[in-house]
Write a structure and sequence with these properties.
With 577 residues, this protein is an alpha/beta fold. It contains 19 helices and ten strands. The chain has a six-stranded mixed beta sheet with strand order 6-7-8-3-9-10. Strand 7, helix 17 and strand 8 form a beta-alpha-beta unit. The radius of gyration is 35 Å and the shape is elongated.
Length: 577
């Protein structure tokens, strides 16, 4: 409870007022049956109209008070629960933003989405329900028991038999609820992951005519969730009929036994009517408590899942000895005997004994077969992952000695998978520098050879790109991502196969602009085409995680067999074409 106090404290007034105002409903629930019994016993039996009107007026005033308290209590309960969940959701989202790639992989994106939405919604619902029943249900139970006892002790025997049986039934139902709700939430995770993957990659699905396969895949996940939900809901479904059966049987027994007492002259009709109402209230309060506990068992499953996110140890953070004032100023990059594997407990090394140095302003090309570790290598520079052995140095400082913010501010990346966000072209470009002027934006767009197609859009830089940049082609998307990185004016620019969708002539123009606009920036280019890196100052040839050759084009064409194979195979294709 201590950890959640921070979400309660700012809205403590609402957390207090909600249950207190609901007490007015308890007062009315307990008072009205007694007032009704007085009307029946004295007003109706004695045909006293003025007595009926006076007691009726009191009942009307109590009903109005109940309505005001009920509305106020419901409002503050809703306010408290919504604000509670809003702040909790913000903290969970902020924690996810701190996650390393490995942390995100451990949860899966679909699971994190479920925890941020469905799980927190379940917690919100229970907080609201609990505030509305915190005093009301116990108040109705205690008040009803007292009033029923004062009216007729003999009839209380029936209640004393029924209540323990009901409490036992509620306990058994709740005991089986928690694991089933936990399983249901995991099935929601799987369904969300399936939906997210299908919608994100819908173009690939359609191009490979795999709609039926995805429909079957979704159908299986949906059916699994249905079965899991039904198993969990059977408990909820069983609770209400059991409670209603107990309430109706108890009422029947009270009416039968009470009727005999009335016939024998030991009880008045109005008292039996009131006693029956109190019996219903007592059992209804038990039902309310059982429903709160039932929903709470689901919320506890959700709370456990949310807590797993909040308690996750982020495996990539600023080290305690990090130099907060250190900035990337020159752009020198050096790898010293670097080895790396994604799973530190098992699996083979992805990179093995990597050694090279890129000096400020140089262009470094990285080439090699698919799976040779090219992307992994460059991800170590901005410290998206940490090395297992060796050192990665930037400006002769170990990357672990920088603050993550300062290190990544000095590194610009155009990823292999180009990502644009919902919004306009200008809004996407400003990710590079939110304070950039329009002239700076235009200059970056010209350098990325994107000015021609941007100008062709009727709304220019105000063109809405749609989710993920669906309104532009692959080549256009790549050039916009390059322009975004250029706006950052980084000391180190990493291009991870980021011109693969661009024709060779346009790519050559982009490289030419790099020599002028980025002459002092260290440029690291991963490419499949040798023509993309042929003019680089240093070319690294990777094969199965090792550097098998490094030097300029002329040196490698003479000394590196792997580079020769790539070069001549690509040249033969060009000649054949």
């Amino acid at each position: 409870m201590k950890r959640y106090w921070k979400y309660i404290k700012p809205y403590l007034g609402s957390f207090i007022l909600a249950p207190l105002l609901m007490v007015t409903e308890v007062f009315g629930e307990v008072t009205l049956p007694k007032l009704m019994s007085l009307i029946i016993n004295h007003g109706v039996a004695e045909k006293n109209v003025s007595y009926i009107l006076s007691i009726g007026g009191v009942m009307a005033a109590v009903a109005v008070l109940m309505a005001v308290g009920g509305i106020g209590g419901a409002y503050f309960a809703a306010k408290a629960s919504i604000c509670f969940s809003t702040d909790l959701r913000k903290d969970v989202f902020d924690k996810v933003q701190e996650f390393s790639f490995k942390n995100i992989d451990d949860f899966s994106t679909g699971s994190l989405v479920t925890r941020l939405t469905n799980d927190i919604q379940q917690i919100q619902n229970v907080v609201m329900m609990s505030l509305r029943t915190l005093f009301r249900a116990p108040g109705m139970l205690i008040g009803g028991l007292i009033m029923a006892y004062l009216m007729n002790r003999q009839l209380m025997v029936i209640l004393l038999v029924v209540m323990p049986l009901l409490l036992l039934a509620i306990f058994l139902l709740l005991r089986t609820a928690f694991p089933k709700f936990m399983a249901m939430q995991k099935k929601i995770d799987r369904l969300n992951s399936s939906v997210q993957e299908a919608l994100t990659n819908v173009r690939v699905i359609k191009s490979f005519v795999r709609e039926e396969y995805e429909e079957e895949k979704f159908k299986a996940a949906n059916k699994d969730l249905k079965e899991g939900s039904l198993q969990a809901m059977r408990i909820v479904i069983a609770t209400m009929p059991v409670m209603m059966l107990a309430m109706n049987l108890t009422t029947l027994a009270v009416v039968w036994y009470g009727g005999n007492l009335i016939i024998g002259g030991f009880m008045q009709v109005g008292d039996l009517t009131a006693f029956t109402t109190y019996i219903v209230q007592i059992l209804m309060s038990l039902m309310m408590v059982s429903m709160v506990f039932l929903q709470a068992s689901r919320a506890l499953a959700s709370l456990k899942r949310v807590r797993e996110v909040l308690d996750t140890k982020v495996d990539l953070t600023d080290d305690s000895g990090a130099r907060k004032d250190a900035l990337v100023e020159k752009g020198k990059v050096e790898f010293k005997n670097v080895s790396f594997q994604y799973n530190k407990n098992s699996g083979e090394m992805i990179l093995k004994s990597i050694d090279f140095t890129a000096f400020p302003g140089q262009t470094v090309g990285i080439i090699g077969a698919t799976g040779s570790g090219k992307t992994t290598l460059v991800q170590l520079i901005p410290r998206l992952y940490d090395v297992n052995r060796g050192q990665v140095l930037v400006d002769d400082i170990d990357v672990r000695d920088y603050s993550l913010k300062n290190l990544r501010e000095g590194v610009g990346m155009v990823l292999q998978k180009n990502v644009l966000f919902s919004g306009t072209i200008e809004e996407n470009l400003l990710w590079g520098d939110e304070n950039a002027s329009m002239e700076e934006i235009r200059e970056a767009v010209r350098s990325a050879q994107a000015d021609g197609f941007v100008a062709s859009f009727s709304h220019g830089y105000d063109t809405d790109l749609g989710q993920g940049g669906v309104n532009v082609s692959g080549g256009q998307k790549q050039r916009l991502c390059i322009a975004r990185a250029l706006l950052k004016k980084p000391k180190i620019l990493i291009l991870d196969d980021s011109t693969s969708a661009v024709d060779t002539a346009t790519e050559a123009k982009i490289r030419q602009c790099f020599q002028t606009t980025l002459k002092d920036t260290t440029k690291i280019i991963i490419a499949q085409r040798i023509s993309s890196v042929e003019s680089a100052d240093l070319i690294l040839v990777l094969d199965e995680g090792r550097i098998v050759g490094q030097g300029n084009h002329q040196q490698l064409i003479q000394s590196c067999r792997e580079y020769q194979e790539i070069y001549y195979s690509q040249r033969d294709k060009e000649v054949g074409a």
